[in-house]
Every structure is written in structure tokens, then in C-alpha cells.
Amino acid sequence: MTCQASNELEQLVLQARPYSSQGKLATYIPALEKANPSHLSVAIFHLDGTCTYAGDYKQRFSLQSISKVLSLAYVLARIGDEEVFQRVGMEPTGDPFNSIAKLETTKPSKPLNPMINAGALVVTSLIPGADLKEQWEDFLDFIRTLTGNPEIAYNKELQESEFSTSYLNRALCFFMKQHGIINGEVEKIMELYTKQCSIEMNCLELAQLGAVFANNGRNPVSGEQIIPVQIARICKTFMVTCGMYNASGEFAMKVGIPAKSGVSGGILGVIPNRCGIGVFSPALDEKGNSLAGWKLLEFMNEKYNFSIF
Amino acid sequence: MTCQASNELEQLVLQARPYSSQGKLATYIPALEKANPSHLSVAIFHLDGTCTYAGDYKQRFSLQSISKVLSLAYVLARIGDEEVFQRVGMEPTGDPFNSIAKLETTKPSKPLNPMINAGALVVTSLIPGADLKEQWEDFLDFIRTLTGNPEIAYNKELQESEFSTSYLNRALCFFMKQHGIINGEVEKIMELYTKQCSIEMNCLELAQLGAVFANNGRNPVSGEQIIPVQIARICKTFMVTCGMYNASGEFAMKVGIPAKSGVSGGILGVIPNRCGIGVFSPALDEKGNSLAGWKLLEFMNEKYNFSIF
Amino acid sequence: MTCQASNELEQLVLQARPYSSQGKLATYIPALEKANPSHLSVAIFHLDGTCTYAGDYKQRFSLQSISKVLSLAYVLARIGDEEVFQRVGMEPTGDPFNSIAKLETTKPSKPLNPMINAGALVVTSLIPGADLKEQWEDFLDFIRTLTGNPEIAYNKELQESEFSTSYLNRALCFFMKQHGIINGEVEKIMELYTKQCSIEMNCLELAQLGAVFANNGRNPVSGEQIIPVQIARICKTFMVTCGMYNASGEFAMKVGIPAKSGVSGGILGVIPNRCGIGVFSPALDEKGNSLAGWKLLEFMNEKYNFSIF
Amino acid sequence: MTCQASNELEQLVLQARPYSSQGKLATYIPALEKANPSHLSVAIFHLDGTCTYAGDYKQRFSLQSISKVLSLAYVLARIGDEEVFQRVGMEPTGDPFNSIAKLETTKPSKPLNPMINAGALVVTSLIPGADLKEQWEDFLDFIRTLTGNPEIAYNKELQESEFSTSYLNRALCFFMKQHGIINGEVEKIMELYTKQCSIEMNCLELAQLGAVFANNGRNPVSGEQIIPVQIARICKTFMVTCGMYNASGEFAMKVGIPAKSGVSGGILGVIPNRCGIGVFSPALDEKGNSLAGWKLLEFMNEKYNFSIF
Fold it and tell me: Binding of substrate: at which residues (chains A, B, C, D) (predicted)?
């Protein structure tokens, strides 16, 4: 893989970066506050195997909620959609990503979709494996295969920080355990979940991973079918209807591509049959999406006409 | 326009029709209970101006919630997106289409999107015009232009039936009037709203109307730009994220096209840059979508690969 | 009836009046904003027929929510508790008095109790009578009998003001009409309801009315049983559990007597087997209770040990 | 203390016992299912130190939610009402005792009152002590003093059963820990909470304990002030407004006394300035209150006119 800096992309980065000053770093995970708020980097991985980038593409960041799409793809592939969708729904929600109220008022109390925390915790609880070690290593292998980088790892310090402060996610887990939606030990699920959130990569690796989804689950370079077509499609659908937290509808209107953001400031973009995109800029808007990252994708859409609508 | 019966479509109709026996006619609007539950018809209007159909394509049905997309397009075009989106949101919701609770718990209390009743009532309240007569006639002209049929009209008996029993919609209106989301007289808004819901057409006209959206707002035959590109895109986005009531997410996964259904059993489908689709089958599933209509669109997607994902 | 000014009460009034400066007049009913915010008056009507007062006891004020207890007593007496409690519950609620959300999330959707607006509207809808005129006149007779004043009337200007702006109450009515909790025409119910809210009296008449409840439904002077014992008890119970809006629990702890307040600034107090109390001071706290009125009742309880706990 | 069997009470027990056949044993705590569903016992402890009983008064049962009143009294006495009511409210709620949704929709997210699980967990988290051992032993001493029985203990098997299955209470704790309402380790709070719920006594001891509250916090035999007057009053108020789960309003109307029930089937009753009552019958109605126990209190009220209203 030979990746090249792109002047054209660099122009768009210059145009979008100023917006980062209107955003704020995530504060609820202490380790995320160390990021450089004016950072902005982007990479595009085309289905012919070429790629371009702008900004400091080497900067690594944690996946956070972006990992929800990946654990979903993995679990769907491993245990099948029927078992997964018995425990988590397919519908978008107007409630915040970390809300617990709907679990109580909806009967049965399964989470509305796998992109909100409750749903993602269910998905993580379904990762197969004889023990925590096997669950984690197999899942990590999957991520390494997707990115083509066997060195992908999680940030231990970050993971420990998240693990020790995730009271709300524990509340969600115990609530769902009470209602039989989640089985297994909550502390183990929390360890696995915080590990998947702490996986680090750069925008280039994120773009390459996105290209697999864009290519209907097939590695664009090797041609290997990593994710079944139908599962790649399911994931892209969730990215459109609920990938950008409570601004998913607005993003669909303004950019119109399957995307998933994380509170680290990363955004995974997927242009079906065209390319994968990785963006990173850690200053967030009030809904939790990367502010300059979102703007950059708007500008890219205006230039390249990415929208699927 | 020359439309032709299609054997291929007819085969799919035969395959889908049996599912109608698992559905039920809408009961909350008395006039809708008179429909023939085993009816199923479909039409496709391609962007080259040709069209095909299957089943009794002449059967007329009321738009009901399908009209929400049309009033939205109309109001956006007439008064601009800024004013509209000050009063109604852009986000999907996990609540039922007729829910009032979220209006109370969300601050400010504007409806989450224009595809739920509360949001559609806001949109209707924004239809410009000196009086009710002008509001209605101008809007009806818009529908006639979209379908190419100057005879399009509403079903008066149906409208009166809906008008006299729509207590819940009045509750929504008064609640929003209290909070300044809606201005004007509730009874007038209700008259306009029930009229738009009672507009009747057949699947062919619905498909032709869909082709305008598929063609980015341009009439595929005359080339006239009826709806601005950006507004057509906004409408298609809402159709994907919230067009099929509380099964929008599932529909996006299984069919993957912008669509809007109504409790009459109609479904408007839009395949960007390809064709518009009109489907009608009045027996509904428990979420309020045409059961055989949904199945037919699934079969059509399998055959023609319509999904945008 | 000979009523006398009381120096002792006057001392307590002097002590409580300064608190009125921390409160605000109700703004959502325009006519209420004309009140004198520093006004404070009180009367006690003992079961031996004597009464005492302090402050300008002649000042008249509208009942507003205080009327909810009276319409409840009236309807229970006229049509029986069974029919009433099929349509409205017996339980306190943590939601605001004008909330609609619980009606949607509770099945069946009957209001939790008759002291919140939804419940009070149900009660009003059950007032018997051949037509609106008879319904109103019979109910007004009941109030006149309770107070011993045949001149009691409603404030027409105030009623018209409330009638024309009560969008939220109309929303509640239409919502309940949809669910079969309320029958009849909403506009007629609204007229009856705003009339009952606009009934005017002074603190002396309010105290005398309270004495009937304190005396287990019997007029303390004439001995006439105006309200059945069991119904008087039901009303006193609701006054303790939900009489002071969302501060009912706090009031029960700090004062400990059955009481019902209205946004006009009136408070009806009932000391079982001892006396009735009428208080008026229009400046309200943020929960809608008369601020100086509440304080005065606290001071009275400290002095006279009124608490039933 | 000499307690005597009462023929009069025995007659009421005979009258109430048949109702137990309409109830069901609590199933969510396995150990409670072993109870004899037709058991019914009662004791009255008068303020002159005499007491009477009927049924098998020696039968011991666990306090469960009855302990919420006792931990509240204890914590109020030890750390003061100001600190307690910063973290838990004073208002009744229409939501179920184990609901979590209101914690999310209310800002700040403190529980509405100390009689629902969330509120009781807050109270338990405030029990002072250097460590869990001291917290527990001091609290248990308080219970022993209240009952006059230094042998009062908790049922270890029951406690362990509750501790291992209380997922919902852990969800409530973690949610409140996230919002800063609860500090300290959740597992320790859970241990303390399940211990207090598993304290066992018989109806006689429960009645004696109730007499302390009836006597304004003073031991009726020794005259010792165990609980300050004002705190005893606060507890009685909560018992009226929220002591009988979601049937508190109905109970107040039909019986009219401060009372607190537990899912073991025990009910603590307090008649101010008159007597304490202990009732036990484990078959519950659908709201979680002892069915025959409730009926017995209704019959007792009819005979002895206990109602405070």
C-alpha cells in the first residue's frame, strides 16, 4: 500500500480546521482530555487500493464508539443475526446514547439499536470465546485483519481509566442483566467493552477498514471476503440511521454517507462501492461528534458528491 | 406516458400477495376498513419516462402519512428550511408516530422530525396562504404537478370522517400551541391536515411522483425542476431514517431504499437516479406498514438490487 | 356568624408577610397578574361556629385549583365513587400538575389522581346535568351551600381569559377523549372547568367551607350533612397526598394538615375535628404554592400544633 | 411486657384470612417463596405498655421494605435532615418502587423519596461508621433498642440470596454513583442494604417498634426518647404518602393510617398517640402489599376508627 499526501485534501483540511476551536475535548474520560484540540487529519482509501491523506495522518486515537460498528459486524458474523436481534433492536432512537429510561418503558426491554451504549454492551456480551482472553484475542484479530495491521492494540492506560469510571455503563449492564437481556458477569463485559473502546489506530487504518465495508465486506486489496455482504450492509444502514449520535438525521441530510463517530474525535466514513474514510479531530460539538471532522466531511461531500441520497 | 403491464412484476406480486392475509386493515379511521384486504398493486416509473405495473393499478387509495413527505417538500420549497427546522427537528425517534410524551420531556418541545404526527402537523401549520382555501388549493396544485394529473383530489367522505375523530392530533396541536410551536387555529390546521391525508391517487401516480424525487426534484419527462435538489435530498433522507414508522431501521436493512408508508396501505418508494415506485396493499402489520407491500419491495430489491447501502 | 379580628393571628401574619416578597404572581393567566403581591389574609372557622381572621379578610380571590377538591366532593356525592375511580386514580404522582406524558405511558391511561389537571378535567366532565346551564347552576349551588353565602359567583372576565388561553388543558382533554376517559364536548368541559376555577370568595368563606370537611361533611353551624362522611375523608386524604402540587410531601412534613392550594394564591386548610382555614396571598413559590401562605400555615402549626402526624 | 391473646382481634383475623388465598408469595426473592401463604398474625402495642395479639404471633419474618423507614429514622437522627434531603426528595411518586427512569428525566437526578428503592439505597449509603462492620452493628443496635429485643438479627441465608440476585438495585446504585448522588462502593452498600432488608422479627416486636413512632419517638414503656419528635413525624408522613408502594393513596383513603409494607408480607402501622401495629401475612396483591394484612387493617379501622383523616 502506497499512500500519498493530497494537496486537494489539504485545502479542505485548512478550510475545516478553524471549526475545531468551537468544539471541546471530551471530559468524561480523563485520558481524552490530553489530546491536541486543533488536530485534524484525514485519509481516503479507494477500492482500487490507492489512498491519499492530509494532516498528520500518523496521529493515533482510540476508537471509542466507532468500535460499536466493528463489534456488531464481528458478532453478527460469528453467531448470526437471529440471535443478535433477539437481544437488540434495529430502530433509531431520539434518546441520548447513554440513556437508560427507554429500557424501562419499552417492553421487552431490549435496547433499540446496537449504536447506543446499552445495545453495544449487549453486542459485546455476545462476543464468543471460552474465556475473556480468547474473546478479546479473537476480536482483536478481526480488527487487525480489517486494517491490515497486525500491530493494532489497545491503550492500556486509557482502558483502565475508562474501566474504573464507567458507572453508567455498569448501571445499563445490571439493568439488562435483571431483565435477562445480558448474561455473564458484568465486570468481564466491562473489561471487554472498555478494551474495544480503547483500541487505537490512525486515520489511514480507519480508512482502510472503512473500505472493507464500502467494498461489501471484501478486502479491496486481497479480495478476501472478511465480512459477509449482508452484514456489511446491515452495518452501513445503522451508520446512516444512528451513527452520529443524536445528530444522525442532520448528518444524513448534510453529508449523506454511512458514518460512525466516537468521543475521541474519530469518524469512520463509508462511501458504498467507492472508498473508506478516516477522520480525526478531537474537539467535539455538544452532541459528541468531532466538529471539524463533521465540517471536513461536509466539504468533501460538496467536492466529491459522496451522498447516497 | 405509456404504461405497460409487466409479467415479471406480476410474478413478484403473486409471490407477495399471500402475506396480506397476515395483516389487518387500519381500524382507527372507519372509512379505511372498507378496503379489500387482499388487494396488491405496484407501479415503477423509470427516469426515462417509461413505466410498468402489476395488479389492479387503477385502484385509488388515500395518501395518509405518505402526504407528510409531500407537505414537507412543499413547505421547505415555499418558506425555506431555516424557518421549518426551527419548529421541527431532523432526528429519528424510537417513539410511536403519534406519541405526545417526548414533546413534554424534550426542551424545547419541538417534534423530533416531520414524519411523526406532531412534526407533520407543524409542517401543515406552515403551509402559506391568505386563507384556508388558498393554502389548500396551492398545495393541491403542487401535488397535481408532481403526479402530472390535474384531476387529483381528496376524498371528502374520508376527510370528514378523519376530521371528526382526530382527537389525538388535536391534543398534539393544542400541546404545541401552548408551547408556541404551532400558531393559528387548531381546527383550521386539522382541516388542512385531514385533507392532505385524504388525497387519493393510484399506484401509477404515486410512482410518477416518486420519480421526481428519484430524479433530484426534476420531472423526468418534462425536465422541469419542481423541487430544488437539496429539498428532494432532505426528503429522501427522512424517508430512510423515519419513513416506515417504528420499523424504519428494519426496512432500511432489509430493503434499503427511501420509502414512506401510510395507514391506507400505500408505500412510496424512491430509488435515487433510477425510478419511483408506488405500492398499494391495505392489510397492515402491527407497526402500521402494508404487509404485502413491504414484502413486495423486499422481493423487488432482491431481484433488482435497489438498496442504496 | 360573628367573626372577629384576632391579634394573635395578626402577629403571625406580620411574621409571614415578608416572605411574599420572595414569590411571584402567576403569569400564565393574565388576569391573575393584577393582584397585590404583598397581600396576606387568613381566617379560621372553628367547629363551634366561631371564627377569627387577620389581614384584609374581605379581599376576594379565585379558587383555581382549590376548586378541584370541591368538584371532586360534588361528583363523588352525585354519581358515586365507583364510577369516578374507574376514570381517575387514587395515587400521588411525582410529575407536574399539568403533565401529559404519564397519560401516555400508563396503561390504562387514566390520570393518577383528581388533583392534577388531567384528573380534575375528568371529574368536571362527570358533573351531572341535562345541559351546561344545569351542570353549572347545580354545582354553584353546592358551593353556595358549603360557604353559606348564596351570592358566591364566578369572575366572568377571568373565566373568559382562562377559557381563551387554556391550550394545555384542551390537549389533556383531547388526549383523554381519544382514550375514552372523557366523553362529551371538549369546549363544554373547558367552559365548565374555567368557570369552577374562576369562582371567587374571601378567606372567611374559604375557612367556613373548610370547616365542613373538618366536621366530617357536616355544616358546623346547622348540623346539616352536606357531604357524606366517607367522601369528606377521601377529599382530606387527597389534600394530604397531593394537595400542594409537587411540594405536597414537603408540606405534609412541615405543616402536616390536609390542604389544597391554587395559583391565585389561596390555600384551603382542614384540621380534622377542629377547624377550617382560609389563606390568601398571591405571590407564589416556584412550585405554584402561595409563599407567605405556606409560611403562615407553618407558623400556625408551630403555635397551635395542627399536624395530624 | 405481658402480651395477651385477644378474642376480638382473633375474630378480625378470621374475617381477613380468606383474602390471603387471592394473593401470591413474592417470587423475585427465592427465599420468600417458602412462606406459608395462609399465615396471618397481628399485634397491637398500646402506649400504656399493654399489648394484644392474634394468630401465631411468634412467626418471624424479614422486614424488607419496612426497613426503609427505620434506616431513614436512623440516618436522619445521626447526620441530620439537611444532608439527607440534599440527596433524596420528599415527594411521592406515581412510578413503581424500583423504577430508574425518573432518575434520568429529573434534574438533579436525586430520588423522589426514601421509600422507593433508589431513595432507600441513598439513605443506606449515608449510614455512618468507620467501616461496614461498624455501620451495620450500630444500625442493628438501633433496631434492637426500638424493639426492646437485644436478640434481633438478620437472616443470613436470605441476605445472601438477595445480595446475589439484586441486579436492579445495583443498576440504581451505579446510576446514582455516576451522578454523584451516591458515594462509596456499590458492593458494600448492597451488603448493608440486603442485611437491613433481611432483619427478622415477629409482629409483636414490629408493633412495639411502631409504638415508638406513635409515641412521638419516645419508648412508651421506659419513656426514653429514642428518635427526635420531628424525625418520628417525618417518618409517619412518608408512611402516609408513600408507605404502601403504588397503592399508598388508596390505602390512605381506605384505612387512613401511617403504614409501611414489605414484600415479605409484613406491615408496620402507626396510630399517632395511640398504638403501634404489626401485621404479617405473606400472600401479596399485585402491587406488593400483603393482601390479608391490608384487609385486616381495614377491618381494624372500621372497628377502632384509626384513621387520622
Answer: 65, 117, 162, 169, 193, 245, 263
Across the interface, whether the CB atoms of D171 and A167 are under 8 A apart is answered no
SS (H, E, C) B192-225: HHHHHHCEEECHHHHHHHHHHHHCCCECCCCCCE
Handedness of CA D170, D175, D178, D181 (dihedral sign): negative
**Are the C-beta atoms of residues B182 and B147 closer than 8 Å to each other?**
no
Note the pTM of the prediction, 2 decimals.
0.95
Helix (H, G, I), strand (E, B) or coil at A200: strand
Is A245 within any annotated ligand binding site? Answer: yes
Q: Are residues C73 and C170 in the same domain?
A: yes
Q: What are the chain A neighbours of D172 within 8 Å (beta carbons)?
A: 171
B271 domain-assigned: yes
Measured in whole angstroms, the distance separating CA C280 from the mean position of its chain's CA atoms is: 12
Tell me if D309 is assigned to some domain: no
What is the bridge-based pairing of β-strands A259-261 and A266-271?
antiparallel
CA angle D281–D285–D286, rounded 5-degree value: 150
Considering only residues 236 to 275 of chain D, which have any Cβ-Cβ distance to chain C shorter than 8 Å? 236-238, 240-242, 246-250, 252-253, 256, 258, 272
Active site residue B195: no
Backbone angles phi, psi at D155, to 5 degrees: -90, 110
Interface of D with A in 105-134 (CB under 8 A): 105
Count other C-beta atoms under 10 Å from residue A228's C-beta.
Answer: 16
Q: Across the interface, do A238 and B258 touch by the CB < 8 Å criterion?
A: no
pLDDT at position C1:
54
Which of the residues B62, B88, B193, B261 is marked catalytic? B193
**HSE on the CB side for B177, CA within 13 Å?**
24
The answer, yes or no, to whether the previous bond of D108 is cis (omega within 30 of 0) is yes
Strands (E), chain A: 3-5, 41-46, 51-54, 61-62, 153-154, 199-201, 259-261, 266-271, 275-280
Q: Which of A176, A197, A218 is the last residue of a domain?
A: A197
Regarding whether A193 and A71 lie in a shared domain, the answer is: yes
Which chain B residues contact residue C171 at CB under 8 A? Answer: 100, 170-175, 178
Q: How confident is the model at residue B61 (pLDDT cuts 50, 70, 90)?
A: very high
DSSP A19-87: GGGG-B---SSGGGGGS-TT--EEEEEETTS-EEEES-TT--EE-GGGHHHHHHHHHHHHH-HHHHHHH
- 3-class DSSP state for residue B301? helix
Which is catalytic among the residues A19, A53, A68, A198? Answer: A68
Q: Which of C101, C168, C186 sits opposite B178 (nearest CB)?
A: C168
SS3 A219: coil
Q: pLDDT tens, B169-217?
A: 999 999 999 999 999 999 999 999 999 999 999 999 999 999 999 999 9
Q: Which residue is associated with the grid cell 474525535? A: A265
How do strand B266-271 and strand A199-201 relate by DSSP bridges? unpaired
Same domain as B138, residue B183: yes
Residue among A43, A46, A39 nearest A16 (CA): A39
Asked whether the beta carbons of residue B253 and residue A247 sit closer than 8 angstroms, the reply is no
User: Could you read off the pLDDT of D87-140 as tens digits, one per residue?
Assistant: 999 999 888 888 888 888 877 789 999 999 999 999 999 999 999 999 999 999
Note the pLDDT tens digit of each residue in B208-224.
Answer: 999 999 999 999 999 99
Are residue D57 and residue D205 in the same domain, yes or no?
Answer: yes
Same domain (yes/no): A55, A159: no
Q: Is D281 a catalytic residue?
A: no
- The sign of the dihedral angle between the CA atoms of C23, C29, C33, C34 is negative
Of A113, A116, A102, A2, give the one whose Cα is nearest residue A48.
A2
CA distance A154 to chain B (A): 30
Active-site residue, selected from the candidate residues C62, C65, C125, C264:
C65
Rounded to whole angstroms, the Cα distance separating A217 from A228 reads 6
